[in-house]
Amino acid sequence: MDRKLKVLITDDSKLLRMKLRDELEQLDCEVVEAENGKDAIMDVLQSQPDCVFLDIVMPEVGGIEALQVIKEVAPDLPVIMLSSAGTPKKLMTTLKMGAMDFIQKPYTSEQIAKAVAAVRKKVDADASGNE
Question: Which of 109, 75, 77, 81 is nearest to 95 (CA)?
Fold first, then answer.
């Protein structure tokens, strides 16, 4: 399956979104951006991305709250948490809630590439399972 992965980046830092967008576009992804959890939830419903990169600490609706809602509306959607506030407790909480992965900021290109590869594998597996 050679279609582009549609990835939603959710972070209140414009700089981080720009940097992550560059990384993802180099990995042949189509990128949608949201600056808080509330917008992320709307984007999941409207643009139906293949995957979400979700920051934990954001204004209005934080990443953990957004993850909870996203998992209710799209239980199979791969969500990768991004956070500099990576306490083991938060990490465990998000993984228990169904996050696929947790990447500590500042992240490396390798971590992003690995996460995208894992998502691609899951999306391809789901697609071949649905045909």
Answer: 81
- Map out the domains of the chain as residue ranges: 5-125
Going across the sheet that includes 79-83, the strands are 29-34, 5-10, 51-55, 79-83, 101-104
In tens, the pLDDT along 8-47 reads 999 999 999 999 999 999 999 999 999 999 999 999 999 9
By residue count, the chain amounts to 131
Which class would CATH give 5-125?
alpha beta
The pTM of this model reads 0.93
Q: Token pair of 67, please?
A: 């993850």
The Cα 116–Cα 28 span in angstroms is 10
